[in-house]
Design goal:
The chain is mainly alpha-helical and 521 residues long. It is 65% helix and 5% strand. The chain is built from 27 helices and 7 strands. Helix 10 crosses helix 11 and helix 22 runs antiparallel to helix 23. It is elongated and about 105 Å long. The N and C termini lie far apart (100 Å).
């Protein structure tokens, strides 16, 4: 058959379906409906090629695919990339049998997506496919009779053997490949849980790693979590030998792929997950910390549910200082909400070293980023944080200035008192200036220092003929702040103010005196 025929075009379409599957597998978390949809779409691409009951056999070369020793007409660059991808995994011949299924396509693409070195360590690509229970896709064997004979032997193996058929009858029930994989994993976990010898434990871990990855394609969440918990316990228990802890840590490092992170996060965010299950999953992710932080940040950026964002944020916060370098990188992201996420987490981690990286963001073009930066600096606290907030309190950014003032009060920064008093002396009676002064007065009250009593009494006693309503707002705020401070030096001024002709001021002064009595009782 010459290149350019209709069959060549159909083969190209089918292979593009495999490319789409690979991309979907890298983008979507395990068990996402899009993965099943991609496998079914890929199957529809192959079905016209298999409807005559004959297998499809292709040769794979680094530069492209061959059909009957003739290069496949390839107008699509991506097919050359697919051939290179397969060739790097020692894929030389590909045979697809007529009873091809979407499930086999799904497992085939997952197996092909493994690292080439890992495929080699597992005995080659065909061994990987056999462990995945794939019976309709065969590689590196050109003779059809040999393939069919191997398939027949494969399907005759009893349940529980090293290999198993696509479906096996056992006690009247049909076991799927996924269920067979679960049986293998359960058996291996029991052996690991009972193993006393460190070297045998290490050897069994090498069996566990590929088997666990295969189970990410199934619904066997409890087994996967059980395996990860076992590894975490062995990696952290001081009662175990240093060698065993090292073996478990090494296994965790090999398993900390994006696929595993996606799987664990999908389980964490599942509405049906119990609180105990969520706690275990969060603990696993925290232990994996440095190996999963980047992926967690990517998932956080794409998450639209507020409760789910909180769960992911909590995990990242718990990773502590380990996450700080990655979070600091995200401060330069073009997406404002990614920057805000990183700032909020840095604020919760409360590393003093983060202040240097957060300060420039007070000039970010997005106000929501600037607000979050003030909140983060406030949470971090300390002398350096107070100095940054003091600078923000005198900036030209009016909204940022107000938030900085309130933050200085919230952390009771006594060193901010001179700046706050200075703000009270600003000229002008526009709405914004009055609000700034009220925030400064409120901050002075929250700091609760006697140094602020005299300036606040001055505000309380001050009259203004033309701006009486605005001035009374400041006087009411001053009375409330004096009551919060509770200094006896303010009592006389407050008592006098209870007879003020402004009813709001008189009430505020009376309430302040009541607050002082309550605090002193």
């Amino acid at each position: 058959m010459q290149p350019g025929t209709e069959r060549h075009t159909q083969i190209a379409i089918a292979l593009i379906g495999l490319v789409k599957q690979i991309k979907a597998l890298r983008y979507y978390p395990p068990r996402h409906p899009a993965l099943q949809a991609a496998a079914e779409e890929s199957l529809r691409g192959f079905q016209p090629l298999l409807q005559d009951g004959r297998p499809l056999s292709l040769t794979v070369r680094k530069e492209g695919f061959l059909l009957n020793d003739q290069p496949l007409a390839n107008p699509y660059k991506v097919l050359g990339q697919l051939a290179t991808f397969g060739f790097a995994r020692r894929l030389q011949f590909l045979t697809i049998l007529p009873d091809l299924s979407a499930a086999d396509l799904h497992r085939f693409v997952y197996s092909l997506n493994l690292d080439p070195q890992e495929i080699l360590a597992q005995g080659g690509i065909q061994k990987v496919l056999e462990r995945a229970r794939i019976t309709t896709i065969w590689v590196n064997e050109q003779d059809l009779d040999t393939i069919l004979e191997r398939r027949k032997k494969f399907e005759e193996l009893p349940t529980g053997a090293g290999l198993a058929p696509a479906q096996v009858e056992q006690k009247g029930a049909t076991l799927t490949p996924a269920q067979l994989q679960a049986l293998d994993l359960d058996k291996l976990l029991k052996l690991l849980e009972q193993e006393q010898d460190d070297q045998r434990f290490r050897n069994r871990l090498q069996e566990l790693i590929p088997l666990l990855r295969m189970n990410l394609l199934t619904e066997n969440r409890n087994l996967v979590v059980r395996a990860m918990v076992l590894l975490c316990r062995n990696a952290t228990s001081q009662k175990l030998s240093e060698a065993r802890r090292a073996h478990a840590l090494n296994a965790l490092g090999q398993l900390a792929t994006d696929d595993m992170t996606n799987y664990l996060v999908a389980a964490l965010l599942d509405r049906g997950c119990s609180e105990r299950g969520r706690a275990m999953l969060a603990n696993i992710l925290v232990l994996l910390s440095d190996k999963v932080i980047r992926r967690l940040m990517t998932l956080l950026a794409g998450e639209t549910s507020a409760p789910n964002r909180k769960l992911l944020t909590d995990v990242l916060v718990r990773t502590g200082a380990t996450a700080v370098p990655v979070l600091q990188e995200h401060l330069f992201d073009d997406r404002w909400y990614v920057v805000r996420n990183a700032i909020a987490i840095l604020g919760e981690i409360r590393s003093q070293d983060s202040l240097l990286h957060l300060t420039p963001l007070l000039e970010h073009q997005e106000i929501r980023v600037r607000r979050e930066t003030i909140r983060a600096i406030t949470r971090i606290g300390g002398k350096r944080a107070i100095n940054i907030l003091l600078q923000a309190a005198e900036s030209d950014d009016q909204e940022l200035r107000r938030q900085a003032l309130l933050s200085l009060g919230a952390i009771r920064a006594a060193s901010a008192i001179p700046t706050l008093i200075k703000l009270l002396g600003q000229s002008g009676w526009n709405r914004h200036t009055v609000d700034i002064k009220k925030d400064a007065i409120r901050a002075l009250g929250e700091i609760r220092s006697g140094d602020a009593v005299a300036p606040l009494l001055k505000v309380l006693a001050r009259g203004h003929l033309w701006r009486r309503a605005l001035n009374d707002e400041l006087r009411v705020a001053a009375a409330a702040a004096l009551g919060e401070i509770g200094d006896e030096n303010a009592r006389a001024g407050l008592e006098k103010a209870t007879n003020d002709r402004s009813a709001p001021v008189a009430r505020a002064a009376a309430q302040a005196l009541m607050q002082m009595e309550k605090d002193n009782s």
